[in-house]
């Protein structure tokens, strides 16, 4: 019975997140009502509040789903990176960027960033920071892996370089979500152009 209950709970979570993501896109974060999310997910309003305190928590769950999916995909790149440093970075960061609008719209990202900035010590803010840290650490792990393969200079601090690459990418992503007209291809090209300078300095 416990296994069945766990599956039912996971299914309700999934339906709520999928319904919220769709309604946030259609009506906007502020315009989407909990009642509408419940109706679309085919659960009661009370069920939603059993799992989430407010809409911000639901948005946080969507962000978490997004980031954890790209982290899982990125594990394969870290384990078996392309034999060229630039290609390895471009492949990993490309996963992050290409998937960024799969669940979330730019308006949803702006809202998530605003909540995490306004309430950094809240559960949402702490979770958002932890997800950023996980992405940073994965980039650092890729650098360390490339060092082990003899492709990156051994005197490079892999963790610090991971922080540098993530912070630069993150700032460019913030600018990207500010402008509705900005395209993913433009963001990827801009990140690739700047990373090329780093690659020239660190590659063996």
Structural account:
This protein is mostly helical and 204 residues long. The chain has two domains: 1-52, Arc Repressor Mutant, subunit A, CATH 1.10.10.60; 56-202, Tetracycline Repressor, domain 2 (Orthogonal Bundle). Helices cover 78% and strands 0% of the residues. The chain has helices spanning 2-27, 34-41, 45-51, 55-79, 85-99, 106-118, 123-148, 158-178, 184-202. The longest helix has 26 residues, at 2-27. The protein is elongated. The chain starts with a helix and ends with a helix. The mean pLDDT is 95.
SSE order and pairing:
Elements: H1 2-27, H2 34-41, H3 45-51, H4 55-79, H5 85-99, H6 106-118, H7 123-148, H8 158-178, H9 184-202
Helix pairs in contact: 1-2, 1-4, 4-5, 4-6, 4-7, 5-9, 6-7, 6-8, 7-8, 8-9
Keywords for this entry:
about 200 residues, mainly alpha, Arc Repressor Mutant, subunit A, Tetracycline Repressor, domain 2, 2 domains, 9 helices, about 80% helix
- In CATH, the architecture of the largest domain is Orthogonal Bundle
- CATH class of the largest domain, please? Mainly Alpha
Q: Helical segment tally?
A: 9
Class by alpha and beta content = mainly alpha
When the domains are counted, the total is: 2
How much strand content do the residues show?
Answer: under 5%
Give a brief description.
The protein has nine helices and no strands. The chain has 204 residues and is mainly alpha-helical.
């Amino acid at each position: 019975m416990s296994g069945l209950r766990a599956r039912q709970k996971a299914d309700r979570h999934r339906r709520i997140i999928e319904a919220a993501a769709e309604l946030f896109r259609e009506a906007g974060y502020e315009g989407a009502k909990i009642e509408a999310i419940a109706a679309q997910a085919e659960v009661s309003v009370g069920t939603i509040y059993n799992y989430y305190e407010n809409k911000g928590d639901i948005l946080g769950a969507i962000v978490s789903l997004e980031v954890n999916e790209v982290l899982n995909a990125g594990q394969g790149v870290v384990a078996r990176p392309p034999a060229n440093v630039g290609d390895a970075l471009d492949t990993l960061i490309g996963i992050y960027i290409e998937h960024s609008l799969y669940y979330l719209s730019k308006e949803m990202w702006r809202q998530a960033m605003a909540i995490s900035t306004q309430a950094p010590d809240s559960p949402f803010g702490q979770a958002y920071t932890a997800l950023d840290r996980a992405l940073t650490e994965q980039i650092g792990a890729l650098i360390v892996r490339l060092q082990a393969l003899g492709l990156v200079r051994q005197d490079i601090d892999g963790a610090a370089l991971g922080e540098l690459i993530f912070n630069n990418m993150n700032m460019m992503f913030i600018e990207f979500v500010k402008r509705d007209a900005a395209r993913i291809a433009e963001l990827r090209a801009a990140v690739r152009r700047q990373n090329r300078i780093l690659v020239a300095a660190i590659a063996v």
